[in-house]
Specification:
Blueprint (H helix, E strand, L loop, with lengths): L1 E5 H11 L14 H17 L3 E5 L7 H4 L12 H16 L4 E2 L6 H14 L4 E4 L13 E5 L11 E3 L15 H8 L16 H9 L2 H6 L7 H9 L1 H11 L11 H4 L6 H10 L3 H7 L11 E3 L19 E5 L5 H10 L3 E10 L2 E12 L2 E6 L8 E2 L5 E2 L21 H8 L5 E3 L2 H9 L8 E4 H8 L8 H9 L6 H5 L13 H28 L3 H21 L5 H25 L14
Parallel strand pairs: 1-2, 1-4, 2-3, 4-5, 8-11, 9-14, 14-15
Antiparallel strand pairs: 5-6, 7-8, 9-10, 10-11, 12-13
Length: 596
């Protein structure tokens, strides 16, 4: 199969599908068109798996303007926001390694028609992807049509059109589509047609007389005076209109099947583009993926190459993440952390933020050396399959997870001392969460000199996401496992304590290491934009204050709120009585069991 996509039609479709709520970046750039086009290409490639694919665009002025200078003259000018996003639409197409096809002086319809005809000669099925009714004239055993439809209040469902269903939309067979369009005209392209003949009259004329030329030859046989007069008066317009709506199949272009062969997307390029356009989910989907190693104590982060081809660029991913469940390892870890310039920390908690359980703690001495201290896991570490899903052996199902003693115990004294030492610089991705998490274990975290989420906010307050995962994706071009990756979402959500500890280690230990890597360029940007003082003198000192306020709460006047409760209850009773009176009913006694 060869899929030929009508480029401009799909771009317009994507733009106007979100016209009431356009997608914009934090800088105000409208990105509805490239987003919609990207999502559509993903669906075409994944769901239909074409052997060959190309996106066809109009190029230059068509010969039709010479035939009829007013051709398309009534079309509104392309909205400026859409025009500005066209290059990004091209970038999306190139990123998916889908050829963009255009022939100067020819419309996309003619190029598609020519390529479809040549493909038919090669016994290849062509699927034209467009909502344009003109393409119905090309439908035959070798050429089908996929109308992608559109969303919104006046939504149209996607339909696949074959010769068996080709006459359902217009009421005429494909070989008569040009005659039909020549009679009714096309206001969107300013094609005149025959004034007075519409979609209800045209099919009857075609059924009775056949093609337009035959209809014009037999006008004297038409009983309805209005129709007969219209055909006689506008016969020249009808003939010209047929010339305008006929898709040419003789464009000077040769079908290059090798060039149109479906290829794997350039994931690295797409991820970078999606980061720029702030398509966060798509950026993560196409970024190099972390992989959890199927062994008993370490998590390996390695780029997974795109299927069928080697990775083009190696990413500086950290090497190993050790899941620590034995106190024997703690002295060596404490020694490494004492030598570190800064300690990366990332807590993993369960429960209410203020009454939380510390499930584990990610610590990093640098971006290559990090650990995950397991405190409250409820299952053992296990092997995982190639997709990162845990693989449980029968004898592991009832295994109790191995954990370290509590953080407040004597065995963790060295680690606790490092966390509480204000002279040991620490970097966090969410200091307030870490403060609450460690406070619940009797530890007063001190010495935090950098918070990536606050730094992100200082650099760009309008950005929709300030989490560590997006900062790593945006600046380092790779991903860190999120909590959702580890625990799932919706119905598949599991408690973090029951998740695979190897994957939690990748989330927390890996996050702590990635934090130390991504923090360097973020601090440089803070310095360049003169935002360092804002972070260090205002935002960071405020975090412990806010955390303490949240843990302490605020004092309220209980007596005042008791009085307010009584007054509101009384007012509500009066309103209810008034409602019943206005409705013509009896006064209703307040129900003492009804909550106010």
């Amino acid at each position: 199969t060869l899929y030929l996509l009508d480029g401009h039609a799909l771009v317009y479709r994507a733009f106007y599908a979100m016209i009431s709520r356009p997608l914009t970046t934090s800088k105000g750039e409208n990105t509805s068109a490239p987003f919609g086009l990207a999502r559509f290409l993903i669906r075409i490639l994944d769901d239909f798996k074409p052997d060959y694919i190309g996106v066809v665009f109009d190029a230059g002025d068509s010969y039709r303007t010479e035939v009829f200078p007013a051709y398309k003259a009534t079309r509104e000018k392309m909205p400026e926001e859409l025009a500005l996003s066209l290059q990004h639409c091209r970038d999306v197409v190139e990123g998916f390694r889908v050829p963009a096809i255009e022939v100067e002086g020819w419309e996309a319809d003619d190029v598609i028609g020519t390529l479809a005809k040549q493909a038919a000669a090669e016994d290849i099925l062509t699927v034209i992807v467009s909502g344009d009714k003109d393409f119905y004239q090309l439908i035959d055993t070798h050429t089908h049509l996929l109308n992608p439809g559109r969303g919104g209040a006046s939504g149209i469902e996607e339909i696949f059109v074959t010769p068996a269903t080709a006459n359902e939309r217009l009421g005429v067979a494909p070989e008569f589509v040009t005659d039909y369009l020549a009679l009714i005209g096309d206001s969107s392209d300013n094609i005149p047609g025959v004034r007075g003949i519409g979609p209800k009259t045209a099919p009857g004329l075609i059924e009775r007389f056949g093609h337009l030329e035959s209809i014009l030859e037999h006008t004297e046989d038409i009983e309805t005076k209005r129709v007969r007069s219209a055909l006689e008066q506008y016969s020249d317009d009808a003939s010209m209109s047929k010339q305008l709506v006929t898709i040419r199949t003789d464009v000077p272009i040769a079908l290059d099947l090798d060039g149109l062969r479906r290829d794997e997307p350039d994931r690295e390029r797409l991820s970078a583009l999606f980061v720029e356009l702030e398509f966060h989910t798509l950026a993560r989907d196409f970024a190099p993926k972390p992989r959890v190693a199927a062994d008993s104590g370490f998590v390996d982060f390695a780029e997974i190459p795109s299927e069928g081809r080697a990775a083009e660029t190696e990413h500086p991913d950290p090497s190993t993440y050790e899941v620590v469940v034995s106190t024997d390892r703690l002295p060596q870890i404490a020694s490494a952390l004492r030598k570190a310039r800064s300690i990366g920390i990332r807590s993993v908690t369960a429960g209410d933020p203020l009454r939380t359980t510390l499930v584990g703690l990610g610590l990093a001495a640098d971006e290559h050396e990090c650990w995950y201290l397991s405190f409250a896991h409820e299952r053992s570490t296990t092997a995982v399959d190639e997709h990162g899903n845990p693989v449980l052996a029968l004898d592991e199902i009832d295994t109790v997870a191995a954990n370290l003693p509590p953080l407040a115990s004597d065995d963790l004294a060295e680690i606790r001392s490092l966390l509480e030492d204000a002279n040991r610089p620490k970097w966090s991705s969410d200091e307030k969460q870490d403060l609450h998490a460690l406070a619940g274990s009797g530890v007063r975290l001190a010495g935090v000199e950098f918070d990536s989420s606050l730094a992100s906010y200082c650099l760009d307050p309008g950005k929709r996401q300030h989490d560590l995962e997006f900062a790593v994706l945006e600046r380092l071009g790779r991903t860190v496992l999120t909590r959702a990756d580890v625990c799932g979402t919706g119905r598949s959500l599991i408690p973090i304590a029951e998740a695979n500890p190897d994957q939690v280690a990748a989330h927390a230990g890996g996050g702590a290491a990635a934090l130390l890597a991504v923090g360097i360029p973020m601090r440089e940007d803070l310095e360049n934009y003169e935002m360092t003082r804002l972070l260090e003198d205002v935002e960071l000192p405020l975090v412990p204050v806010l955390a303490q306020m949240e843990r302490t709460g605020i004092k309220i006047d209980i007596g005042f709120f008791d009085q307010l409760h009584g007054r509101l209850a009384h007012d509500l009773e009066l309103v209810q009585d008034e409602i019943y009176a206005l409705a013509g009913g009896a006064l209703r006694a307040p129900d003492e069991n009804t909550a106010v």
